[in-house]
Amino acid sequence: MEQANISRMYGLEHTIAAKLFDGAQYPWELLPKISSFIVELGNSLPEEIFEKRGENIWIARSAKVAPTASITGPCIIDENAEIRHCAFIRGNAIVGKGAVVGNSTELKNVVLFDKVQVPHYNYVGDSILGYKAHMGAGSITSNVKSDKTLVVVRDGREEIATGLKKFGAMLGDCVEVGCGSVLNPGTVIGPESQIYPLSSVRGVVPERSIYKKQGEVVGRRQPT
After folding, report:
1. DSSP, res 123
2. Which CATH number covers residue 35?
3. Is the keyword Cell inner membrane assigned to this protein (predicted)?
4. By Cβ atoms counted within 10 A, which residue in 12, 120, 139, 177 is the most buried?
5. For residue range 32-77, what is the model confidence (pLDDT) as tens digits?
C-alpha cells in the first residue's frame, strides 16, 4: 500500500517529532509510541525555549494558551502554537509550531505537524495530521469501530490489519477536510487532497484528490 507510506504522506522537516517516525513504514505504527516519545523528548527540550508546566507537560514560551484550556500530559506544545478557549488536550499530544487548537477542540494521542489547524469543535484522537492540514468546523476523527473490532486499512482490494482497536485518521500534508465531516476508523488521506463538507470518509483517499462522496473521488487539477 504505497500511498500510505510515511515517505509519501509527510515532510518530516515540519515536526518536532521527526525521530518518532524512524524505522516505521506506515504512520499508524507510531500511535502506541507517542506517549513514551513525548516524555523522552520533553526531558531534552531547552529550558530557554520550553517551560515545564506540570507533570510531563512542556509548553513553548512563545505559545499562546488560553487560561480556560485543559491540558493533561504527556504533552508538548511547540513554538508559536495557539491553544484557544476551552480546548481539551487529554494527553499524549504533540502540537506543532504555529498550530491552532481551537474552541472546544479535543485532542488525544495525536501528532499535529507544524501549522495544523483544528480550530472549531473538532475531535482528533489516535491520529496524525501532516503539515498545514486543516479540519473544518465540526469535523472529527472517529477512532473506534462500532463493533469494537480491530481496525483494517483498506485501499480497494488491498488490506492491512493494523492490530489497533483505536485508530482515527492519517492526514497527509496540506489536506483540507470540509466542515461537518466524519473520518471513520482507519482513514488515510493523501497529501494535498480535499474532502467535501459533510462527508463520511473511510479507506484510502489518493494524494491530490477531491473526495466528493463514497465512490466519487476525482484528481485535483494542477495549477497552470
Report:
1. E
2. 2.160.10.10
3. no
4. 177
5. 999 999 999 999 999 999 999 989 999 999 999 999 999 999 999 9
Flag whether 74 is in a domain.
yes
Rounded distance, CA 103 to CA 126, Å?
Answer: 20
Domain count for the chain = 1
Q: How far is CA 8 from CA 21, 108, 137, 150, 171, in A?
A: 13, 24, 27, 25, 11
Domain assignment present for residue 143? The answer is: yes
Mean pLDDT of the chain: 96
Global pTM exceeds 0.90: yes
Q: Considering only CA atoms, which of 167, 196, 169 is closest in space to residue 180? A: 196
Tell whether the torsion through CA atoms of 5, 8, 9 and 12 is positive or negative. Answer: positive
What the block records as the C-alpha cell of 162 is: 493494523
